[in-house]
Amino acid sequence: MTNHWIDIKNADVILIMGSNAAENHPISFKWVTEARKNGAILIHVDPRFTRTSAKADFYTRLRSGTDIAFLGGMINYILQKKKYFKEYVVEYTNASFIVNKKYGFKDGLFAGYDPKKRKYDKSYWAFELDRNGVPKRDKSLRHPRCVFQLLKKHYSRYTLDKVSKITGTPKEDLKKVYELYASTGRKDRSATLMYAMGWTQHTVGVQNIRAMCIIQLLLGNIGVAGGGINALRGESNVQGSTDHCLLFHIWPGYLKTPRASLKTLAEYNKKFTPKSPDPMSANWWQNYPKYSVSLLKAFFGDKATKANDFGYSWLPKLDDGQNAAWLILFDEMYKGNIKGFFAWGQNPACSGANADKNRKAMAKLDWMVNVNIFENETGSFWKGPDMDPKKIKTEVFFLPCAVSAEKEGSITNSGRWMQWRYKAANPPCGIKGDGEIMVELMNKIRKLYKKEKGVFPEPILNLNWPKEYNPHEIAKLINGYFMKDVTVKGKRFRKGEQVPSFAYLQDDGSTCSGNWLYCGSYTEKGNMAARRDKTQTEMQARIGLFPNWSWCWPVNRRILYNRASVDKHGRPWNPAKAVIRWTGSKWEGDVPDGGWPPLATGKGKYPFIMRKWGHGQIFGPGRADGPFPEHYEPLECPVKRNLMSSQRINPTVKLFETDADKWRSCDPRYPFVATTYRVTEHWQTGLLTRWQPWLVEAEPQLFVEMSEELAQLRGIKNGDKVVVESPRGKVTAVAIVTKRFKPFKILGQTVHQVGLPWCYGWVAPKDGGDSANLLTPSVGDPNTLIPETKAFMVNVRKR
Amino acid sequence: MGGKSFFIDTSRCTACRGCQIACKEWHGLPATPTKQWGSHQNPKDLNFYTYKLVRFSEHEKRGKLVWYFFPDQCRHCIEPPCKDVADGYVKGAIVKDSETGAIIYNLELMKKVPFDEVREACPYNIPRQDEKTGMVAKCDMCIDRVKAGLLPMCVKTCPTGAMNFGERDEMLALAQKRLAEVKRKFPNAQLCDPEDVRVIYLVLDNPKLYHKFAIASVTPGITRKAALRKLLNPVGFLQTLG
Amino acid sequence: MKMTRRDFVKFTGVAAASVTLVNLGFDLKPAYAHAQILKTRMAKETTTICPYCAVGCGIICHTDLVTGKVINTEGDPDHPINQGALCAKGAALYQMINNSGRITKPLYRAPYSDKWEEVTWEWALEQIAKRVKETRDKYFIHKNSKGQVVNRVEAIAHVGSAALDNEECWLLQAMMRALGLVYIEHQARI
Fold first, then answer.
1. Range of B99's domain?
2. Range(s) for CATH 3.30.200.210 in chain C?
């Protein structure tokens, strides 16, 4: 979230799209309700009518996988009707930037496409630079190659007529949503966008969100109270686990994983430290080496020295261009290339797309370690449906771990609040906390390497690893401390002292920090995440900021890009809901995005400080599939052609080729669009909640929701057991025949859609049904490789 | 008339079912076996171990779909017919707490009161019996919590302000205020039997669309004794038992 | 920093309540004993954050001082986001902690076996350490096909977890990276 949960109350319009917030983030509705009390309009756009829709002022439907068409129509509307916030667009976004002559777009393809590699050469999308190397701008927005004009041209194709034909949303509904949402393109109004996996789990997932970012930038809704792009994250610490980068492509704090061609730390730092010749651009990532060296010091402590490149070569490098994302991981496992596997607090036998491929892949492992609270479909895969234990070699170790309330530590919520939790009780005898397990296991491995030697033992033996797990010690390491007595920015620090903020991190090895973003979270003042002080200034109270409650990254800034909430003089666009304000000598309100004075003083910086050029990116030349979002159909779809172009699917999508990777489009055997989701009462695969009788009582079994029309077509009655099958698998489910699902009219043809939750599995409860991910395809977004589990094709029949 | 009351604003209910589970948590009530039966409403009905149940109902009105949620529970009637029945058998089987107005069942003593009569007396079809022990149970207003200055668990747990609890006059005032607010958009909005019960529901539409027993199943204006006789309709009740 | 004690347990009120109810002739089954005395009256309070979605709601855990067991969980009224409220899952936290389905010993499934066996932590961790070392040493890649130093292991993969604490996440990624793993993924990718 650029903003935070309480801030939702400040919105004038709330659009929930790609999310069912009322069911999956129920407490968010406390703040949605609060906004509505103040007169806000709630809009819900979703293929199905949910508990969120039931509370909306306006609800409309779209076919799964057509969000870009829907939003493209909104961009077109905003531009045609001149509803954008002009000053914001001109000053704070890259709308005025001139794009080079090689850029182009034709029939669904941007310039620079290589059909063999299914990849773009992004140099075709570069900005035109002036003599100093700064992008040329036309603040009149008239230049035919300025971003604004290219945007206008691109989205002029998204007419109401076309959008309605693609999405199945009635034209008058489209107009109504566009009108309501675009009403916030004014200084005194803001709109927030709440999305979740309904947007990410598509082969155009990133571009779904990009499309909305463009809308929010056009309307001046980023950085302001009641605005922003708010990803409603689904796991208690998925924000923190992402920040600390349990991901192949990034190191803690979103630093890049090194590549084979970057032989030295200097080469690595050079590659990933952007240079901006524009003095007005803060270009925050220019500090990259300070963060990377401090991270290496956290990894290896005193063993990391300048002489050994701070241990840079001890850490693994990917080949250039190598991708090790989830879908590839399981593809490799399926091919037998992975021998050992840790499934730690995760249940890929149910959570991964094309789950049967994952389950079969596990049978090819030599060993697996499964750490969890309850028995689950991953650890017990060898005795699952269609498995013959006698033929499965995989050794499995199951390690039982503590529940959250049985250990101490912090988690980071969707609004980036790092909150400390205490230990309420010891875990039952025989159970260990995850931290304890990892520390003990690694110490056993270290002992083996010490005793028996082994291949390349340096990183293992030099690792700064504790003897016992102590969350406070690790929290202090993540924050970082001084490795020697040193003076930084005129301040003297002693060895061992906590670093007060990332502004003090150094690239010479004198500081360590496990994650620069969290520098400031555990300082000499104490554990900031544990703070429970609700004091606030009047200005903060007005917009619901609690700066002294827990701690928020970065530097306790509660609303990101908040310098875009003020004009060039530092005056809030909307004084009634001011986020920050320049008093003439300092900023008040939230922690500003950098302490420089306002732009008008000549000493200011552009507000989007993490971007190289300091501007909100309407034109996004960094994405794999184009600088502007373009509608493509899902890999599996009910229509023979894409109405927007002759590219039916995203041209940069990676297709897997094993016998488990099957997909069918427009195949009469799989005539219905399907989508997956969760319910309030179960969490993710249901691993934790399916063992809890109260929650099972409320949602006991797998169901499939369908329209009355489809039920009639298939002779299905409410409550009947039915089979849902895709080219990849099938599940048995109870039919919920409901008015909340309706067939769509797409290009004159009737398209039925069904939906089912993925929170069940064969282990428990006994007659609960299996995972809906047995149906979903293993194909992902070209930028993130997040799988497309929200739009695929199935058949439904009575059992 | 003093005491406490609930105000349940169904227009704010999102059916997150926090109240339904929290009620079980606080009272230490076990789950009952359920099946998916073509609805998200589960358990299907109130039972001996379920004092609070969010009821779901969907309707289509002039092409517009509505999905109504109704967090059902004992209304803690001002003049509880169930107590009249019980008083005729065992004194103290059902008591009314003088301070709050809570209607409380004594599990042991209720064994001696014919359950059919209690259930038939209830205009809201609330009491449920444990077939094995013969005990009868329902919402107790979290009397232990209320007496300790805490909110009933369902009210505390509610995220949206659908569940409210407090002094009766305050709750009535809040109910009237909310009614006036929603009336503008929903002309059929109404409060369910606000004068007769301590759990006052605000509904946006005909109460029967929310739940068969959303309002009392007797005509108001007649005496309680007469009502008791009149509302006895065993066949109807048996159907809802299924 | 521990929070200050909330002023919501009024002992006089509780005492009065129990007297009233006793006078009314209450004789309740053990499961209903709380109706007489507020069950959390003598419990220790700790705060936690809900382990489910990322709204980050505050929850209070009540721990019995004698048994050391969690006897109640409910929303934290001081928490600015949820102000005491919880959804169905959050309201059921008690049942995740006190759950007879929890596994309380490490389990081992031998090759081709059709059952789990209970094993000791010592044995399990030692065996895992051996497997890690064997696989790592056997499949370690010093240089790629271009001759560039890569020092990585592709034969071991790791997934998880967004349910871990920050401190655990950091340690876990450090451990896996030090072992040379590149297949490190978790819930954020799906």
1. 1-242
2. 42-102
User: Distance (Å, rounded) from C-alpha A512 to C-alpha A691?
Assistant: 42
pLDDT at C22 over 50: no
Helix pair angle (C121-139, A434-452), 10° resolution: 60
Provide the token pair at B180: 């006036």
pLDDT classification of A260: cutoffs 50, 70, 90: very high
Write the CA distances from A679 to A515, A551, A676, A697, C55, integer angstroms. Answer: 34, 30, 10, 13, 16
Predicted confidence (pLDDT) per residue in A238-249, tens digit: 999 999 999 999
A749-751 and A729-737: which strand pairing? Answer: unpaired
pLDDT of residue B222 exceeding 60, the answer is no
Q: What's the whole-model pTM score?
A: 0.95
Separation CA C39–CA B145 (nearest Å): 9
CA A347 to chain B, closest CA, distance in angstroms equals 24
Two structure tokens written together for A451: 């005793």
Q: How far is A352 from chain B (nearest CA, A)?
A: 25
Burial class (CB in 10 A: 0-12, 13-18, 19+), A783: middle
Looking only at the bridges linking them, the beta strands covering C149-159 and A340-344 are: parallel
CB nearest C38 (choices: B29, B104, B148) = B148
Distances (CA, A) of A557 to A3, A476, A551: 10, 20, 9
Averaged pLDDT, A256-283? 97
Tens of pLDDT along A188-232? 999 999 999 999 999 999 999 999 999 999 999 999 999 999 999
A220 close to A91: Cβ distance less than 8 angstroms:
no
Number of domains in chain B: 1
Min mean pLDDT across A206-210, A749-753, B62-66 is at B62-66
- Count interface pairs A-B at CB distance under 8 A: 100
State the complex-level ipTM: 0.97
Q: Is the pLDDT of residue B226 over 80?
A: no
**A396: β partners:** A368, C109
**Two tokens, residue C18:** 């129990």
Whether the bond between A471 and the residue before it is cis, its omega within 30 degrees of 0, is no
User: Using an 8 Å Cβ cutoff, are A221 and A256 in contact?
Assistant: no
Residue with the two structure tokens 């420089």: A596
Give yes or no for residue B42 having a pLDDT over 60.
Answer: yes
Answer whether residue B223 shows pLDDT above 50. Answer: no
Mean pLDDT of C137-151: 98
- Mutate which of C9, C23, C38 to test chain B, going by most B C-beta atoms within 10 A? C38
Q: Which CATH class is domain C42-102?
A: alpha beta
CATH number for the domain including B76?
3.30.70.20
Taking a C-beta distance cutoff of 8 angstroms, is the pair A46, A53 a contact?
yes
Compute, in degrees rounded to 10, the torsion defined by CA atoms B138, B139, B143, B146. Answer: 180
CA distance A66 to A72: 10
Mutation target to probe the A interface, by most A beta carbons within 10 A, among B10, B21, B32, B40 is B40
Three-class SS of residue B203? strand
Instruction: Say whether A40 sits in a helix, a strand or coil.
Output: coil
How do A749-751 and A744-746 pair as beta strands?
antiparallel
What average pLDDT is seen over chain A?
Answer: 97
Q: Name, in order, each residue with C-beta under 8 angstroms of A742's C-beta and a sequence gap of 6 or more.
A: A61, A707, A709
Mean pLDDT of A557-586: 98
In angstroms, the Cα distances linking B162 to A54, A352, B70, C88 are: 14, 37, 10, 15
Q: Which string of b and e fits A255-270 if b means at least 16 CB within 10 Å?
A: bebbbbebbebeebbe
Q: Report yes or no: A580 at the C interface, CB cutoff 8 Å.
A: no
Name residue B64's beta-bridge partners.
B61
With CA atoms as reference, report the closest residue to B149 among C37, C14, C79, C42. Answer: C14
Question: For chain B, what's the residue count?
Answer: 242
Closest alpha carbon within chain B to A718:
B38
